[in-house]
Design brief:
9 helices, 9 strands, Rossmann fold, single chain, two-stranded parallel sheet, globular
Amino acid sequence: MSIVDQALSNRVALVTGGSRGIGRSIARALARRGAKVIVNYTSRPESAAAVVAEIIAAGGQAVSAGFDVSNSAGVTEAIKALGKEHGGLDILVNNAGVAINGLLMRFSDEQWAKTMAINLSGAFHCIRAATPLLLRAKEAGRVINITSVVGEMGNGGQAAYAASKAGMIGLTLATARELASRRVTVNAIAPGFIETDMTADHLPEDQRQKLLADIPLGRIGGADEIGDAAAFLAGPEAAYITGQVLRVNGGMLM
């Protein structure tokens, strides 16, 4: 990566689940625009450290912070401490998530609760804890929630995941209305199928080809394309955009 501009200079950005995949790409993209990025992780400190090292090596600013977004008290304590340590918080990206797949009739209460606790409650915990800091942001606060195409169109075997991601869209819309008068924008990005370590490891070739047939652009998206979308929504170009769901899905859902 290389620094492309300083549009986010002097801004502090927190990216939850930033140690790998889409989160890593978002952290890199924000750093390329000059933001100081806090790379959150839950269980992979070495991966978060690698992202931080990559950003610093390219001339950017980054630190890591370990906390579990599903732990309400832990989130409140961590974000308060991070705001104090770094002089505030300007950008929050709720990317941390888990996908537990399975047919509805065989899905356990524990699987449902874990999905909701991380994907939906985690975003809520972070927004609630960050709002006092975002209201005092240097320019205007930004919240960006990473939802999914599945949250809008559904998918067999992903009832819990789809419900949690649809809930994030509702959370985005309600929060956007609450915070607009204080110049804090709240938007969501709904990725389609994105090439990450997870898809590479768990997507058989026959399923890959079937997916490609349903994507008008004829390819699976790249994680950096989601990073670029987040960097746009965090930047000055998006100052008049709030309460929107940006679909980055190759035309899979129009």
